[in-house]
Amino acid sequence: MRYHDSMISLVGNTPLVRLNSVTKGIQATVLAKVEYFNPGGSVKDRIALRMIEAAEQSGELKPGGTIVEPTSGNTGVGLAIVAQQKGYKCIFVCPDKVSTDKINVLRAYGAEVVVCPTAVAPEHPDSYYNVSDRLVRETPGAWKPDQYSNPNNPLSHYHSTGPELWEQTEGKITHFVAGVGTGGTISGTGRYLKEASQGKVKVIGADPEGSVYSGGSGRPYLVEGVGEDFWPTAYDRTVADEIVAVSDKDSFQMTRRLAKEEGLLVGGSCGMAVVAALEVAERLGPDDVVVVLLPDSGRGYLSKIFNDEWISQHGFSEDTSAGQTVGAVL
Ligand code: PMP
After folding, report:
1. Which helix (H) or strand (E) holds 111?
2. Cβ-count burial 192-216 (b if 16+ within 10 Å, e if not)
3. Distance from the CA of 225 to the center of ligand 1, in angstroms?
4. Which atom of ligand 1 is nearest to the CA of 268?
5. Helix (H, G, I), strand (E, B), or coil: what is residue 290?
6. pLDDT tens string 196-251
7. CA angle at residue 231 from 228 to 236, to 5 degrees?
8. Per-residue pLDDT tens digits for 75-108
9. Is the per-residue pLDDT at 4 higher than 70?
10. What torsion do the CA atoms of 261, 249, 208, 40 make, to the nearest 10 degrees?
11. Whose CA is nearest to atom 2 of ligand 1?
12. How far does the centroid of ligand 1 lie from the alpha carbon of residue 167, in Å?
C-alpha cells in the first residue's frame, strides 16, 4: 500500500513548473517553485515543522505544551497542522484588521485565536505585542517559535528548499528569486544554492517598494507577507546579490496574469516575485535557468486581488488598451 503516515510527511517536495506565457520574448528558462502544494497551502509549513521538531529536541517544547505566536497567516496554519498532529495546543494572537476568513481557518485546525485591537499604542496592555508576551508568561508549558529570530526558519530552507531545487534542476539553476518577509526563505535557500554551486548561483530578493530591504523606511504597501519596517535576525544580509523593489500595482497585475495565463492561482507576493524574476531574466541568455519561489495560493485573496472592484478602487486596474478588452469582445 502506498500512503503517508500523516499530513506532516507531505511537507516539502513541491513541484517546479515552467512559466510559458508571462515569459514571452525571454530567452532564459523561468521555473516556478509552487509552494501551495504544501499541506497547509504555503511555504511556511516547512518552517513550522522544523521549528517545532527543533524545540522538541532542545526540550523547549514539552509533551502537551502550548505554542504561542503572534501570527494571522501562513505560519499559523503550518504551526496549527503540525501541532495538532503532534498533540500540542496553539494560541495565535492577531490584530483585529485580519479577515474573519483567516481567523476561521486557524480555528478550523483547532487553534485558539486571540484578537487584539489595532487602534491602541504598542505599550497598551491590550496591544498585539503585549498580549502575546503575557500569554507566553502565563500559559504553563508555553513556547514561542518567533519566526523572525528563530534560526530554524532559514535552516528549514537550507535543508529542504535548497537541496530540492538543486536536485530538480540537476544543478543547472543559475538564478534564485524570492520575496523577503522574515528573510528565512532567501537566506536558507540562497545559502545552500551558493554553496552547492560554488558561488555561481545568483540570489535576488524581491521587495515591496517602501520596505527596508530595498532601502525604504517601512512605508505602507498592500502586498501581504513580504517587506518589513525592521531588520529581522532570520535575514542574512550576505546572501542576496541584488534586491529588486516592485510596486503594488505591478505585483497585483502579475498575480492576476499568473491565474489567467499560467493556471496559477497564487498570492500577491508571488506576483511580486515573478515581476522581479522577469526583470532579471530579460538580461539573460538561453542557458540560464531562473527559479522563482511562489509562497502561497490565491485562495486567501479572492476578495482583494481577484476582486475587480477592489482592484479598480485602489487604482491597480490593468491598462484597458492591452489584450483585455479585445479578449472580452471576442
Ligand atoms: N509571501 C508570503 C505570502 C508570506 O507569508 C511570506 C512569509 N512572511 C513570504 C512571502 C516571505 O517569506 P520569508 O518570511 O521566508 O521571507
Report:
1. none
2. bbbebbeeebbbbbbbbbbbbbbeb
3. 5
4. 3
5. strand
6. 999 999 999 999 999 999 999 888 889 998 998 889 999 999 999 999 999 999 99
7. 115
8. 999 999 999 999 999 999 988 878 888 899 999 9
9. yes
10. -40
11. 225
12. 23
Nearest CA to ligand 1 atom 4: 225
Instruction: Quickly state the pLDDT bin for 328 (edges 50, 70, 90).
Output: very low
Q: Are 105 and 168 in contact (CB under 8 A)?
A: no
Protein residues whose CB sits closer than 6 Å to any atom of ligand 1? 73-74, 179-185, 224-226, 267, 269, 295-296
Catalytic residue, from 33, 44, 89, 144: name it: 44
**3-class secondary structure, 12:** coil
Is 34 in contact with 264 (CB distance < 8 Å)?
A: yes
- Cα–Cα dist 71/93, whole Å: 6
Give dist(CA 246, CA 177) in Å, integer.
Answer: 13
Ligand 1 centroid from CA 323, angstroms: 32
Determine whether 44 is an active site residue: yes
Strand partners for 178: 205
Whole-number Å distance between alpha carbons of 150 and 67? 14
Distance from Cα 180 to the centre of ligand 1, integer Å: 6
- Checking if the pLDDT of 329 tops 90, the result is no
Mean pLDDT to the nearest integer, 148-166: 98
Indicate the residue type of 242.
Answer: E
Cα–ligand 1 centroid distance for 155 (angstroms): 15
> What is the residue with the minimal CA distance to atom 11 of ligand 1?
181
Is the pLDDT assigned to residue 305 strictly greater than 70? yes
Angle formed by the axes of helices 74-86 and 44-58, nearest 10°: 50
Determine the residue of 147, 182, 230 to mutate for testing ligand 1's pocket, defined as the one with the most ligand atoms within 8 A of the Cβ atom: 182
The per-residue pLDDT for range 231-241, each reduced to its tens digit, is 999 999 999 99
H-helix segments, the chain: 44-58, 74-86, 100-108, 128-138, 152-156, 162-168, 184-196, 248-262, 268-281, 308-313, 323-329
